[in-house]
Each structure stands twice: as C-alpha cells, then as structure tokens.
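G., before I forget:
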Amino acid sequence: MKQIIDGYKEALAGYPQAEVGAGKRIGYLCSYVPQELLTVPGLEPYSMHAPQCAGTDLADTYMGRVTCSYMRCILEAFEEDRYEYLDGFVMTTGCDHMRRLHDNLAYLRKPDFLKLLDVPHKVSPAAIDWYTEELRRLADDLAEAFDLEITDALVRESIGKWNQARRLMVEIDRLRRADAPPLSGSEMIALSAGFGARPIEANLRDLERLLDEARRTTDCSRAKARARLLLVSSQLDDIRYVEALEAGGGLLVGEIGCTAASSFEGQVDEQAEPFRALARRYLERLPCPRMMEEHSRLLERIVEMRGERRADGVIIVALKFCDSWAWEGTLLLRELREAGVPVLRLEREYFFSGEGQVATRVQAFLESMGK
Amino acid sequence: MRLWAGCDVGSTTGKAVILDESKVLAGAIVESTLDPEKTARQALDRAAADMDIAPAGVEFVRLVGTGYGRLQIPFADENVSEITCHAVGAHHLDPKIRTVVDIGGQDLKAIALNDDGTVMEFAMNDKCAAGTGRFFESMARTFQLSLEQFSDLSLTSTKPVSITAQCSVFAESEVVSLVAQKKAPADIAAGAQLAVVRRVISMARRVGIRPDFTISGGCAKNRGLMQLLGQRLKMKVARLDFDPQLLGALGAALLARRKSA
Amino acid sequence: MIGAATRKDSVYLRWAARNWLRILRLGVNPGPARMLKIRKRYPWVSGFLKVNKLMARLMGERRGAYRQATGFIINRLIDALATIVRDIHRRRDRLVWHEDLVPPEILHAMGLMPFMVEMLGIVLPMVDTELGEAYLDEAENAGLPADTCTLPRMSLGLALRDHFPPPLAIVSSNSPCDGGMSSYAFMQKLSGAPTYRLDLPYRYKDDSAVDYYTNELVKMIDFLEEHTPGRLDDEHLREICTQRNRAMELELTLWDMLRHKPAPLGSDVVFLAHMLFFGLFPGMPQATKMYAGLVEYARQSLQAGGGIPDEKYRVLLWNPATLIFPEIFSWAESEFRATMIMEMLTFNRHPLIDTTSRRSMLRDLARIMMQGPMSQHTRGPVEYFFDDLFFIHEHYSTDMIWMAGHVGCKNTQALLGMMREKCRQKRIPLLTIDYDLGDSRVVSVDGIKEQVRMFMDTVMR
C-alpha cells in the first residue's frame, strides 16, 4: 500500500516528462473540467500543479502579489518551461484569478492550444444546456487541433472508466469512517490530488489493489489518534502541508475540496446523452464556493460528513487571496460555530513555508477541544 | 571659480557632490543624523574639505537637494526627486544607459530612461526593507560578519540555498534555521544575495529591462551581488565610472549647473 | 477627512442652501418623528449632513459653469439619497435589495422599491470615511479576511450591524467579480430573504449570451412576482425605457462635448452623473433633467473657454475613482492643470432600447447590464478591457492614464503587468496609484497625492 501511495506522491512532486508513444497530454486546471473528454483515445489529461515553486518573481510582475499563489506558481512554472511536454491546456472561468492566469498565459506564452471553458455559476436547466454546448465545443476544438475523432461512443467509454475510478476512490475514502482508518489524511490526499497526474489505466489498477489491501489491513495505529478531524479546503496538493496538519497527533478522517476525495463523489449517467450527462454531473456535484447558490449544499455535506466520520472538529484551509473562499469560509465558520462544531480556520500559500506556524495552530486547536 | 552642488539626503546616509564648469571636484558620504539640514551641511563640509577649501569659503552658484530629506534643506535653491537625479546622473556618465536600479539603504527604485536621459517610467518600493541595504545589514549581522566579508563569503558558494521568506524580518529567522540545519554558510549567504537579486530583477521588470543596465546605491559595491545579478539577468551590468552611492547627488549637482550655467 | 477646500462664494452658498432645503424637506415628508426613528435605525443617514463639505472639496478652485455643474451634481446626489431615505420606511412593503450591477429599471417597472446594497459602500468613503471604516472593521471582526475588496466588505459590516432596511427579496449577479458575487450568500443569510442571482456568461457580447441573460431576467421577474407584490407592467417598462433612451442621448451629447480641448467639465461631475443614472434612477425623469442640465452647463463652459481654461493635461482614469479621495481631480486641476476627461465606469456602448415588446426591452436591458460599470471590463475576455482603454485614450485625446490600482481588486491587479507593457509600447504615460478603494488607513490621501506628484514631477516633467 505504501508503495502505491509513494507512487502518487512522486507524481505530485514532479513535472510532466517527455513520454514516448503517449497520446497528446492536455494540462488542465479546475475540477470543473470533465477529465473524461481529455481521456478519449489519443488524449491524456494532466492535472496541473507546480511543485518545488520557490518564488514567483516573474509571475508577480504580471499578476501582482495579492492574487492566488497557485495561479502565480503555475505561471512561474510556465516561464521556466516546466510544461514543455504538455500539448495543450484547458482552464475554466472558475474564478477571477484563473481567468487572469489564462489571459497572462495567452499574452506571454501563446500556447498552441489554450481553452477557457465558460462554467455557469448556477445549476439550472439553462445552465446545464449552456455547459453542454461548451463541452461540445471543446470536443470539437480538441478533435480539430489534434486530428482526432471524438464520438459520443468514445466519450461514453471514457465516462465508464472515470465512473469506475470514482467508485474506487470513494470506496477507499469510506473506509476512513472506521475507528482505525487505514489511511491518514496526507496519504488520502496524495491519492486524490495525485490522481490527475497519472494515466487512468495506472490509476484504475493501483486503486483496485489499494482498496483490496486497505480492506484487509490489520493496522490499528490510527485508532489512537489524538483527535479526528475533517478538512475543508480549496485546492490542496501539498503533502508536506497536510503532514504538518497531522503532525500534532490529529488525524484527518475526511476531506472536502476540489482536490479531495469528495470531488470524486457523483457518477456520470452512462445512459444519457454523454455531453449533457457530463455537464449535469460536473455542475451538480459537490460545489466549489464559486457557485453562487450552492452554499447550503456545501454546509450540509460538511455537517453530514462530520457525522459520518465522527470528526471532533473541522479545519477550513484556503489559499490566501481567494475571494470565493474568503466569503465562503467566513460564512461557514459562523454557521458551524452556531451549530456547536469546533472550527479552525487557516490560510496558506501554494509554496510551502511556515511549517512550525501551521503545527502550532493545529496544536492549539486540539488543546482547545480538550484533546 | 564657479561651483555647483547637489545634496542627496537619505535616511541612512547623506551625500554631496561639488562640480565646477567642467568636472566633478569632490564627493562625500556621511551618516545621516535626525536633522536633514544638518546632514546636508555635514556632507557638503566633508566634500569641501576634500577640495582643500575651508567650508566657510565655499559658495555655490546653485544647489539642488534630493532624497528623502530634500524638503528640509532650507539652503537648497531647488529640490528634485531622487528618481530624476539618478536618471540625470546615469545619463551623464553613460548616455547608453536605459535602466537604472537604485538599491538604497531603505528603499529600492527602478528607472527606465528615454534616449535623452529623461525618465520614461519608474517604480519604487519604499514600504518594506526587502531588497534594500537594510536587508544586507541584517543578514551580515546574523552571520556576524562585515558587509564586505559577507559578500566575499557568498562568492565562494556553488549552490545557493533558496530563501523563500518574502519579508526580510522572516528571512532572518529562516537563515537561523538553515544554519541549524547545518547548511554551508557560503551557500546561505549566496541564497540571501539571490533573494535580493530576484527582488531587483522583479522591480526592474516593472519598468522594462533594456540595455544598458546599471545599479546604483551602496549595494552596487557588493561584488557577490553584482556577479549574481549579471548571471541571472543574462545581461551585462554596466559599471559607471563613479561612486555608485553618489549618483543621486551627482544628478542633483548636474541639474543645478544646467539651470544656471 | 480633509477640510473644506473652497471659498464660500455665492455659487457655493446657493447650492449649499438648496442641499439643506432638500434635507430639511425630509422633516416634512416623512416628518420629524419618522426621521428621528430612521436616523436612529440607520446611523449612516448622518452622512448626509456632511454633503456640503464634499461639495466644497469637489468645487475647489473651479469657476464658472464647471463650478455650477459641481454644485448641481451634488444636489442631484442629495436628492437621490434623500428620496431613498424618505421611502425606506414608507415603501418598506415593496423594498428589494439589488446589487450594483443589477440596475433597477425592471424593479421600478414592477412597482417595487429598489435599494442598492453597494450604494453606502460607495457613498460613505466619500463623505464619512471613519464611519465607513467602522463597518469594515465589523466585517473583519466577523472573520472576513482583510484582503477582500472593501466594497462588499463594507456591505457586510452594515448588514452585520443590521443597518440595512429589511428586504422582501434580493437580486444579485455574478458581476462584477468573485468578491461581489460571493458576498451575497452571507447577505442572504443575514437578511433571511429569498435571493435570485443573474448569471452572466463569459463571452457576453455573443448573441447566445444575450439570449441566455435575457432569459435570466425573465426568470428574475417570475421570482419577484412570486416573492413580492411587484408585477411587471409593460407600459410602465416602456415609459422607463423611453426615458432612459432620452437621458442616454443627452449623455452621449455631453460626452461628445468632452472631446473638446479644453474640456467644458469633467471628473466627478461626469462620473457621479453616470453613477446616479445607471444605478439609482435610470429611466426616471430626474435622469433626463440631470443630463439636460449638464449639457447646458457644458455649453456655457465651452462658450467661456472651457472648464479649466489653461488645461494642460487630459487624464483618462481607469478603475473606479478613488472613493476615499473623491476630490483627487479637483486637486489635480489646481495643482497640475490636469482634468480627468473620461473614466472606465462611465464609458459604455449601451444600446438604445428597442421598446417594441417586452422581450425586445428585456433584451436590450440585458445588454446594458452585461456591459455595466466595472463588469464590462472585469468580466469577459481581456480584449474587452484593453480595447476600450486605448479607444477612449484616442477618442478623447488624453495625455496619460491614471490607473487607480485598488489593492482589493484582484482582477485588475492581475492585469497591471500587461497594462504597463501595452502602455509602454504605445508610449502612453501610465501612473498606477497603489491604494485601497474604501480604506484610507491602507494608503492615506497624502500617500495618494505623493504618488501622483512623484509621477507628474518625474515623468510628465
């Protein structure tokens, strides 16, 4: 099991390398991009991250210093040619910061294939129609740019694989309801965040094995965790950060966020027209705060998961300068506290620093819960 | 003998330059006092002393004040921003200069020049000590070395350690923890230099980096910094044939002379 | 707040008296007892008493028709705010909150009383910075990070202190930015009112996007008819749209006159007028009268040789004007003979509304909203931002661009690098002012002046 997890950590720790014989690799940002469309024959999706980011001087020149550090690290990595082995890029109108990353990229790098999906901010029949059209357009653009055939049948096949992957991920995650979860938070996040950086076939194979081993494990060490914690976060792929959260003896037993296992919840309807089915699933699943009307759903899921996982407290972590999470986090903080749930709220930057500071805060939180 | 002078009163040092019709006669640097007027006088007196003229005997046709304390020099005929003065000084010394970055004691400025030496664009960071002389002082202090020894130490490094803290106050504690991790002092020193180099380049980019490129201010005397900068910039850093710390005062003196030649 | 900066001449005194009269009329309608209750319930009403000081700061050293126009526009602002205060209680059974990018034409046509949530966040920093900052602190105390934009932040502070009139319903949108959009979940929670949100697509100039947004408006009307006594009257909507068209034609006439060198007037007169028109009384006779008045002042001003007869510099302002320093241009006029000719929030290419049918009216209103202030540049492809910027610069023959670099506006902060390079390529001098829109404790008024002076003395030398 450890070996598999290490494989995921490794994927997160590096940049895409040259691969012989692989299809065209399309880098994407944002969990609203249907990876299925990027997994048709001839294409492979690559979820973008920027490990080893030591500073964003060049990106700051263009994007300023009060913007999302994740976006700035990505821009910096672009300027360092770290994505030279990716053949195209798909982003969304997820947030102001991502849109401006797109704009700065188009200006500075002019990638051959760079698309911005217009994701509605609401979930409604009209919004689903809109997004269905956007996805069809993306498929057409991909087909044209890379000389491929993207038929409904091929998309359905791809959906099948991803549904399977999602089932596996959710199953593994559910095992953490137990008194002695078979994985820690940092291990689970390595899987959920690292998933997108590895080919789907490898993922399906490894998750299958891991699920099997996890079910059979006799490791009870985590039953003695000082406290069980639920993590609610924005984009988070930094394993060292999660390790710092768990360093004081608290154990993450569940995570909600776009790079967490929660983003694997919800299947795509394999019977329906595939583009519409994708649009529906991606809009209707657990929301990102950038959705305008979905706050109560997010709150409900947090409360529900807290119950399911018997978490003592909730930690909300967001990237500094994110407006969507600034507001969402503040409202959640208030409502969770009103409901008597102990909450710790943290801010982080994409590049890891201040390990001691994180650990101190979590420790103080545990102590405040009497743990 | 007709004389003109420029006084650059900064928060750390006060500088003065004296000119006659054709050349620079003297320049001086003193430590700033709390009183800008006093600092300016001290700098002028020191410069005059270098010329073997008794201070009392010196009279200027015109004197221009610049720098942080320029508004409090009552005997100046005019005060001009240090941006303009640095531009004028640099252009006079080398008309090919198009980008100047002044690494001051407490601030960092980048200036883009037009072909005629006027200022096209500028950017300043005077809100924090990152990338300024203050940062070096605190680094050298942490190492318990003089600034020159610190610079020499950094030159022996082959693998600078990355210092990620944006704020120089936090950088100090980061250095302390790097020392505790037994990283080579030379590599840490080089890392600190590198942190400043990145700040400098970042500031310069805001106004557009065009050759020829030069650095002014006391930190230009830091060989380790200059070497790293040249490497990172992939551009030659022009060396002005003048004390880089006196560039502002020179520009002020030139402006004084221009106005009343 | 800096003190009054104008001489108390007959122009000032006449307008000051008119302003006072308008405020005192509130003592008749809704009457003294009600006014005291309103004043107690909504402490920000006391900001009204400071309006003459704002007028003084804006009048500065202006003369002639420009000075008159300044008094006139402040008087229009007072009238608009006083009307709201008057109706806050009287029409509380029809009161609906709307976000600044959801203008109130339809709400008016439905017989509802629109209350713009962001209005206070805009007006308070101009007239009573300290009170505004108290609300900012309130929001921060509730846990809202200090890097969020001060405009929605101030709204949250007001809502937390229950200083907003209670709404029957709320309408907002995803414009102009993440911050504005995201604040409404909180506002909804605090008010308990049902909320409808309009969703603006990205490529909003495309026909498909206009269709989409028009349908959003149709659904908004259904929503309001369900949750409020409001009913959409097509005739009333037609009247409003016709009036709006009339006012807009006058506004376009005024803008044409601004192309003249020297300009007849500019800055706060121009942008306050548009703000009032777009956000508070579009389609009302007040708007038409206001622009008719301004066109007349502009004509007089041109005849007399221009607003600032020795106009030396013409400035294009980008990003919302510095609310904490609204007299920035009055100051710049005196100090540098620099007039602000046009700015980002005012300039638009709104269509004249086709009043043939409900659908055609809604469609054109949709297009107007989609190109609303800030939103037209912060949403959508980046070309929309730069194309307008350079078009306006050419069209109005401005000499430089002042970018009011509000630190809380992440959207535009992330474009500053590109902006610098493009201006550099076109050899357009660009001043970027670092400051915060609504919080003078981040960068003070003096700090702003220093930045402007440094630029004017160095680059425009």
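Chain B has eight helices and ten strands. The domain at 97-239 of chain B is CATH 3.30.420.40 (Nucleotidyltransferase; domain 5).

More on Monday.
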